[in-house]
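New to this. Explain these tokens.
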Amino acid sequence: MNKNAEEKQKEQAIEADVEAKAQELEFLRGIVRKGILELQPSFDKSGISYHDAAPLLKDKDAPAVKSLLEGLAQKGTLKSKVVDRVLICPHCGSPEVHSKFTCPRCNSESVALTQLIEHKKCGYTGTLSDFSKPNGLVCPRCGVILTSDPMDYRIIGNFYQCENCGNRFDKPEVKHVCQNCGKPSTFQDVKYEKVFSYRVSDEVVREIGSTLPILENIRVFLSDKGFTVKLHSEVAGTSGVKSSFAVIAEKGDTRIVVDTSLEGNKNDIVALLAKKVDVNPTRALILDLSGGAELATLGKIYGIDVVTAKADQKVPKEFEELLATYV
């Protein structure tokens, strides 16, 4: 390869890298603006997909979207969490794999779990199907109807029986059949994969500087109540250090500061406490977007109001009720 060809190849690689990074950034901006802070997987015959991500990545199929999310998780911009483990067809990649028991002798799927029963009175031993009659359990040898009295009979054990060849066995073979391509696989070749959910990191939300829908709704709500409202702004405290808040609302002598917690991490409320001590607002509030309960307990200790909310919802009723007590 000559020098010009090598340089051209390097330029193309750089351009591709820049384009990929731009697409990743636009994707992150898009999901944060929509208030989608966590991407959950869904399953169908074609594979594992992330429906909330797909509209923002129209030029990518499900495997490409999955690959992009994995890449962002490796970079730390998304935080991955194992939410499931599924069997994956080794032939077509579908997670729609059903497991079936088969006979070790003839490979038939017509196997059934049954019991071996002994009639104590006459000593006859047979399978549950041997004893089963329309009127209950009846001994095939002496014709006595067995009752639920434990003195009548005892269960010797459980086993599988093939309805095709009559073979009895303790452990069936397991076959996995794909519902997409129809091909079978064994435990040796079927794939058993982790499935992840992906959550946007707090750092990314702050770096992107996008406004979560709920914050914009709160801004409008407070403005309608006569407050001067700033989003993602700073205010100087008594120490002279400037502290940033998701929302700063002021009206007269009243100052309300609001922060968010995406994951319900106690460090979020501890950080707000430190800023509250320095800034000394009328009220400090944190929006818990995680759905957890730990922050609510800490809020009572620290004198910080905690409101459970979702990133894309309207102003929570609890926030409206608290505001009435602030002013």
In short: Residues 276 and 284 are 7 Å apart (CA to CA). The helical segments are 3-33, 62-75, 128-131, 202-208, 213-224, 266-279, 294-302, 317-326. The chain has three domains: 3-87+191-202, 104-171, 211-326. The mean pLDDT is 86.
